[in-house]
Amino acid sequence: MVKEFFSDAKPIANLRQLIESELPNKNLNSSNTLWATSVCSDEVNQSLHQLDDFFKTFGPFILGGISGIPFAGKTGFKAFASHIPDEGGAVIIYGPHIGITKDGSVGKVNREGQDHSSSCCGSLVAGLNSVKSGNILNISHDDYQQGQVNKIITENFEEIKSTDSDIVATTEIAYKQIKRELTDIVAGSLDSLDGKPLLMIGGIIVNTDWDQQDLFEVRDVSWFNI
Ligand SMILES: [Zn+2]
């Protein structure tokens, strides 16, 4: 199923290699580069923390909320930008995530310590189920982020329901949304980078069962402020 839907997904170790190969192009290295993520809050995405072994700086700055949308907004980005080392730069890794179990269930994963699989991304699956069941959009202060996720799924539901796999389609919609929102935030706040380069790497995290290595399918690699 991974090959069917995410044919370019590679172990997260390959993401480290990509960063290592890109940074020297702008005179950056593991000591003068601060990293951030805009990925879902789900603890399964801590698999990205393999990158802690690479970055000597204390990261990542967390820009994303549930689903991976950059809920930290311009204020969060400006704070992140102000923490970049002198003469250094920044990396942001962004995107949604989707679980695929060993037995091929898409949108689920087996988590350590549990004898059953569960939704992954739970936020996107919950949003999809909510829209499918015809729930009226309700953005409340005690579930603000999910309200925004439901809104995005509602706006794209015609496209989602015309596909073979609605959770894969929802993940693709989430990718586009995360990329668009982050690009808007960065483009509108370039001054806050104070001339420092920013590498943005977008893709899909493919979570596998807990005893297997997670994957990342790179979709976009772009430099800003250069
Ligand atoms: Zn999630």
Structural account:
It contains 7 helices and 9 strands; from the N terminus they run H-E-H-E-E-H-E-E-E-E-H-H-H-H-E-E. It is an alpha/beta fold and 226 residues long. It has one domain. Strands 1, 2, 3, 4, 5, 8 and 9 form a 7-stranded mixed beta sheet that branches. Strand 6 and strand 7 form a beta hairpin. Helix 4 packs across helix 5. The longest helix has 22 residues. It starts with a helix and ends with a strand. It binds zinc ion (ZN). Zinc ion binds next to helix 4.
Keywords:
globular, seven-stranded mixed β-sheet, two-stranded antiparallel sheet, about 230 residues, binds zinc ion, alpha/beta, 7 helices
Bound molecules: zinc ion
How large, in whole angstroms, is the Cα Rg?
17 Å
Shape category: globular
Largest sheet: 7 strands, mixed
Count of DSSP strands = 9
The end-to-end distance, rounded to whole angstroms, is 39 Å
* Helical content band: 25-40%
Task: Work out the strand percent.
Answer: 15-25%
What ranges have pLDDT less than 50 throughout 5 or more consecutive residues?
none
- When the domains are counted, the total is 1
Average residue pLDDT? 96
H and E string: HEHEEHEEEEHHHHEE
Structural class call reads alpha/beta
Number of helices: 7
